[in-house]
Amino acid sequence: MRNRWVLLGVILIITSIFAAGCYTVLSHPGVQGEEQQTYNGTYYREHCTDCHADYHQYPYGYYYGYSPDYYWNYPNYGHYYNYPWWWDWYYGQPSGGEGTSVPSERIEKRRRLEPPYVPGGEAINPPALTVPYTAPAQVPGAVQESPNQQPQQQQQKEEQKKTEEGKIDKRKR
Amino acid sequence: MSGRIFLSTAFLILFLTPSIFGQEIDRNYLQVEEPSAGNFFGVSARAMGMGGAQIATANDAAGLVYNPARLTKVKRIEFSGGMTHQRIENETGYTGSTQPLSSYYQNESITQSNTRFSSANIVLPVPTYRGSLVFAAGVNRMMSFDHVFHSTLIDPDLNTIDLDALALETGGINMWSFGGALDLSPNISVGAAVNYWKGQDDYLQEYYIQPSAKNVSEIRERNQYLYDYSGWNAKLGLSVDASKFLSLGATVDFPTKFSIDQDFNFNYDSTDANTQQEFISQYEELGNYDLTHPYSFGLGAALSFKFVTLAGDVYFTDWSQLKPSARSGVDERLYKLIYQNVTRWHVGAEFALPELATNLRIGFYEDPIPFKSTYLKTDRRYFTLGAGFLIDQVMTADIAWNHGIYEFRDDRVNMVKESYTVDKFFLTLAYRL
Question: How far apart are CA B179 and CA B228, in angstroms?
Fold first, then answer.
């Protein structure tokens, strides 16, 4: 009988965590007006950075956590331990494979949002990330730039921004 | 009929000898010896290569067993399975170059080997936008009853074997689990598992007492005890990544209420030394009783450096809180008198050689026996080694070797011993989609 109460307590705790909501969210909440937006071929979800200042550091809401640094230099470790399986669905294979017809929209998504540890991708250096700070008034799931970001991260962001701008400029030409 | 009550002539004779064999005699003397108490075998080759220290370091399906909260570290769908091989050697006799006190004791050794299925698990991370939500299910062999004992006493005058006592025990308890974990914050995770325990213990005792000039009757006794265990419990876990270098973990194992079906078969055959009259007795006893294991609390910490992870766990369990049901026929106070609070501790290290896609592991753990033994000389201590290989970024193969000893001696003569040398081998394969 006592065990049943304990079991009931455990189930209640778990249910209340889910019911009350928590840090873990399954999908990005709907953004008002998003349905009306159409892909224009220049920048996939160009308004994401309105809410997610560090969007490129946390693609698809990703948080790197405290992983051993060598995961970054040895992508086989990164892929096995840190690369979520559903990214395969979201990002697809990096090249799309010869002879396969991949919509240009999807290629664009990949290029813009390609996370670390993408199979076949090049090894990259770890950004010195900090825990994302979420302002209370923000939309759940939105990630804002942390005030104590380290110089390395800032520098990477600037470099990434320049790259993105360069790509857009080239496309415009 | 209660849990374990042994009153055999052969062991009573052993009681009367100047020395006493520890575990076997302890288990007879205790009368309520419970083999599932303090029975830690170990799951997962990675874990057991690191001395079983996993509360703050588990990063695979083993989290379901050691700390469900650590399941959040799994990002890919994982299928894993494992095997174990155990070799246990029992030695009895005397330790000096001459016989102690009398000429009764004979040096004996016996070995038992068992290869077992150990684990099968699946881990399913749910796609998340932020954080982690992971479910897992599996079966793991948590307890092992594999054990062996052999002892002989010789007659100093006739130089013949007076007593031959043999104990063979096999079996184990599997834990069927379903669990889940989620991130409460970027660095805090919680997890829970519901476990169904099911297993069997097959314990066989054989004695032979030869008639001698001392007018002892010839006795042959063969007793078989079958226990069928089943029970439920739950486990909660917490994991905190305090910094890039430090991880902490805590677990609570809720009490497991075992329902135990027992089937005893007694075969007794004696011939009176004087009258030569033969007496044969055969009977079977069936029974059922409940036994509740107490809470167990675990704490773990891990330090991670560039290529090295150091980990340590402690588990606190007060086995004196073993609680039998009224129908067991055993007074609960017996458990309180005989069993004790134990602290099991584990330490381990993992060294990464990423260029070779290999991890090397080393560890140590002490698993104190849960009852108060007068004859315990060396408690159960294990030294562990292991290695893990990452194959083609989708598969891991882990192996581990545990070497342990424990020994009982009679302090009064300090020469008569019952010692065990245990070697355990673990193999775990995992595939991530």
Answer: 25
* Minimal-distance CA residue of chain A relative to B180: A14
The answer to whether residue B329 neighbours chain A at the CB level (below 8 Å) is: no
CB contact A172 to B (< 8 Å): no
> Does B185 contact A23 at a Cβ distance shorter than 8 Å?
yes
The DSSP output letter for A158 is H
Q: B39-77, pLDDT tens digit by residue?
A: 999 999 999 999 999 999 999 999 999 999 999 999 999
From CA B204, how far away is CA B222, in angstroms rounded?
A: 7
Instruction: Report ipTM for this prediction.
Output: 0.83
Mind telling me how many Å the CA of B220 is from chain A's nearest CA?
44
Selected residues 148-207 of chain B with any CB under 8 Å from a CB in chain A: 180, 182-187, 190, 192, 194
Alpha-carbon gap, residue A93 to B431, rounded angstroms: 20
Cβ atoms within 10 Å, residue B386: 26
Kindly identify which residue of chain A lies nearest to residue B76, measuring between CA atoms. A85
- Cβ atoms within 10 A of the Cβ of B108, count? 17
How far apart, in whole angstroms, are the C-alpha atoms of residue B426 and residue B84? 5
In angstroms, the CA B116 to CA B82 distance is 9
What does the alpha-carbon distance between residue A116 and residue A126 come to, in Å, rounded to a whole number?
Answer: 9
Q: Is A117 exposed, middle or buried (0-12, 13-18, 19+ CB in 10 A)?
A: buried
Under 8 Å between Cβ of B128 and A26: yes
B95: contact with A, CB 8 A cutoff = no
Q: Which two tokens stand for residue B350?
A: 């993992």
Contact at 8 Å (CB) between B52 and B386? no
Residue-wise pLDDT for A52-107, tens only, equals: 666 555 555 555 577 888 887 888 888 888 888 887 666 555 444 444 455 555 55
pTM for this model (two decimals): 0.79
B190/A17 Cβ within 8 A:
yes
